[in-house]
Amino acid sequence: MTKPDIKKSILTNQFVVNYRRMWPFVRPIWLPALLSVLVCIPIGSLDAAIALFLKPYTDMVVVGKDMSSPWYIPILIVSFTTVQGLLNYFSAYLNTWVGGKLTMSLKKKLYSKLVAFDPSFFDRTTSGEVLFRFNSDADLACAGLLQNLKNFITRIFSSIALVGVLFYNSWQLSIMAIIILFIAIAPLTRVRKLIKSIIAKNNASIFALNTTYNETFAGNKTITAYNLQEYQKNRFFEILEGVFSLTVTMTRRTAWMSPFMHIVISIGLGLAVAWGSWLIVSGTISSGNFVSFITALLMLYTPLKNISNNVVAVQNSFMAIERIFELFEQKIPLADKPDAVPLQGIRTGITFENVGFAYIHDRPVLQNINLDVKVGETLALVGNSGGGKSTLVSLLPRFYDVTQGAIKIDGKDIRDYTLQSLRANIAVVFQDNFLFAGTIRENILLGHPGATDEEINRALDCAYLTDFISSLPDGINTEIGERGILLSGGQKQRVAIARAFLKNAPIVVLDEATSALDNKSERVVQQAIDNLMRDKTVFVIAHRLSTVRNADRIAVISEGHLAELGTHDELMALPDGIYRRLYDMQFKTPDLPLSGQTEETPPPQDMRERE
To answer: Model-level pTM greater than 0.85?
Structure first.
C-alpha cells in the first residue's frame, strides 16, 4: 500500500469509527436522520443542471443564433434552482431537529457520567474543564457531525454529477482536471497531524478561561476585599494572550493550504482553457461543450478553495467525539460489586479495621486506624488540622475507597453493600453545606422528596427554622439564590440540618458543622445538631473541644494515626496527652471578648439573621 493510500485509509477509518461511535445516539431517530442525509443527494446532484444546460444553449443561441429552440432552458434552470432551494430549506430544518436531538441525548449521557464520578475526579478536574468537556464538546461534536456529513454527501453527489458533465463534454479535459483536483486536495491528509497538538493546548486555555470566570463569580467578595482586581485581570489577560498565540499558530500551520489550492486550481483552469481552445479549433469539441465544461469545472473547483477551513472543522468535530468517548470509557472507581447487597439499617455498629488511605500513591494520609463504634454511640474526632479527621469520615459513605484495611457495618465490608443504599443510611452535615438555587422547601426536600407537610414542619422545628421562615413573606417557598447566597451562615447550616432530619438516616456525620459560625449562630445550630444526633450513631469532627466533651468517646487523630481514644475525663487524665494539650490551649487562653462586650453578651445580630 502506498503512502497516499495509507493516509486515505486512516482518514476513512477515522470517519467510519467516529460515526460508528455515534450510532447508538442516532438509532432512536434514524428515520429523520436518514432523510436528512438522503435529501443531500438531489441537492448536490442539481448543481450540475446549470452546467449541463449551457451546452445546448451555447451551441444553439450563442453560436447558431437560433432563438426558437432553447426557450425552455431558462425555465428549466429556474425550476431546478427553485427545487434545490426548497430542498435546502427542508435539509436545514431536518439538520437542526436531528442535531438538537443528538446533542440533547449526548449531554444527558455525559451528565449522567458526570454525576456518577466520585469526588476524586473533581479533586483533579477544574470547573472550566468540566464545562468544556461535558457541555461544549457535545455541541461541537453534534453540530460538526451533522453539518460535515451534510456537506460531505452534498459535495460527493455534486462532484459526481459535475464530473459526469465534464466527461460528457470532453474526456481528455476531464482526466487533466481530475489529476489537478487530487494534487490540490493532497495537503488535506496532513491537517490532523498539524492541528492536534494545537487543539489540545487551545482546549487547556479554554478550560483556564472558564475556570477564571467561575472563580471571579464565586470569589467576588475575596477579590474585592483583597483588591485583587488587577491581579485577576492580569491572570485573565495572560490566558487570553495564550489563546491568541495559539490561534495565530493554528492559522500559520493551516492557512497556507488555501492559497496552495488557489494556485493549483488556477493552473488547472488555465490548462483547461488553453487545451479546450485547441480542441475547439481542431473540431474535437464544440463551443457549447467548452462552455459547459468550464462552468462545471468552476463549480467543482470553487468550493475546494476554502475546503481547508471545513477540514479543520471536521477534525475539530472528530476530536471532540474522541474526547467525549474517552469520558464514556473511563471506569467509575467506586462502582457496585456484581454481588453487592442493599444495606438495611445498622444493628450492631461500625468497625474500622487497620484502615489506611492515600490520595496520592506512597503518600499515606491515614495509617492503621482501628476503631469500633457501637450503634447509637457518638464518637468525636479531634486533632490538629491536616491530621486526617475529615478524610476518615469521608471513607464511610465511600467518597473515597480505603487503600488498606476495611470499614465494616454490622461485620460486613461497606464495599459489599450497594453505594445507593450505603449513602441512604448516612446523613452528612458539612462545614460549608451546598445549597442549590431554588426555594427553602426544595432544598430541604432533597433529604426526602416524598416527605409530608407534617414531616417537613417537624424538621423545621428540630432545626430551629420555624420562627425564621414564618418571618419571610413567602415562607418556606422563599428563593435563596445560587448556593443559598441570600441566607446567613447560620441559616444555611440549619437548612442543611433540616435536610438531614428529613433523610432520617441512622448514621450522622458532622464535619465541623459549627466551626465557621459566630457564637450566637453556633449556639442555635448546636441545639439543632443535638436534636439531629438523638438516637443516631454519630461521628463529630470539631476544633472547638467544648462541643465534643459530652461525646461517648473521643478519638484523637494525629498525623494519620489514632493517637488516643477515650472519654473526655479519661483523656484529660493523661498527663502528656495530645487531647489534654489541645484542651488546655483552648481553655487556658480564652478568646478575648469583643470591645464593649462581655462573655455573656452575644455579638451584634447579623443583618440577614431574622430569628
So the answer is: no
